[in-house]
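re: ur question from yesterday

yeah so i grabbed the chain u mentioned. its 350 aa long if i counted rite. heres the sequnce exactly as i have it in my notes:
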Amino acid sequence: MVGFRWDLHDSTINIIPSGDPSFLHPDFSSAKAIHLIKEYKNVSLLANGYFENRLGSGWTWNDYQETYMAERSAFPMYGNVVKFYLQDGLVKTMPSTFEKMISPSSSKNLKGMRVFRPMESNDFIITQGESKTVSTTFRTYESSTFLPALQAKLLTDTLHISATVGMYSGDSPKGLKVFHSQPTDSLLKPMMHRSDNFFAEQSLLMVSNERLGVMNDEKIIDTLLKTDFKDLPQSPRWVDGSGLSRYNLFTPQDFVAILNKMKNEFGMERIKVIFPTGGTGTISNYYKADTNFIFAKTGTLSGVVALSGFLYTKKGKLLIFSTLVNNHQASSTAVRRSVEKFIQGIREKY
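ran it thru and got these structure tokens back, copy pasting raw so excuse formatting
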């Protein structure tokens, strides 16, 4: 993956972000990036090519503190999530920068805690609660300019360097040096296994950045629907990278067409590594008898249960399937058990 693009000016390394979500994320090593950055006395984070809102169109706004709805940004750090924990009765944070943003009177002599952040700020209010640790989102931009001022603070505090912000004034950033951070599939596998909305959102922004030179959902979605996905059976409504929005409308036929395209272009061996199989990922409690015979991705919203993927039948056939249950009022578990029984019946019969 393209972690960022960069160039040098005297003793300053200029970094032009690409949307890569792996930097300083607990699931990934950032050693190579840190080593490169710390070679220079100063770092300048440049705001270029990011034209997207922090939250997606149609997202449930009152979930803004939930970690599954971390904000999108040009240069994510720590997964755009802050962890609060208790140490000797005091509230500590990871990253430590956010300790300066806790209401002073609310962070002492606690046995457990709850954390509240107003939607438009990074002012964290701690109250007595049950949890010893709490993870929540932080606001990624401190103004509407998209200047990565907060990211510069995080970089300064974490790496103990001088980090500032600016705008790139040279030629197209695509002509700069490219830093590759992680193998692509090392991001795609956890994204699929735990249904990571943040990784999905940032992946779409990265695709937009590489293909169009800007990070913008609407533009890249329009481009993909006119090129890679121009032959879908039905024209979908598509507004974000993760599927958090109820504005998204895809048919099972569309998903089958996309999965077939993936099989033909990437091959099943790669898909088997990325997709969860029975007993793993988001289907860890399902299809345990079908491990290594089913490779599928779940989809869940209130009242909606979906499953799409690949199934090897007992007669050796490879089937591509997509199931969608809308407007149910049962528990998601009960619906998934019914779908599991249906899929297992298909595997037995064909």
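noticed a couple things. The mean pLDDT is 93. also The first strand starts at residue 2 and ends at 9.
anyway ttyl
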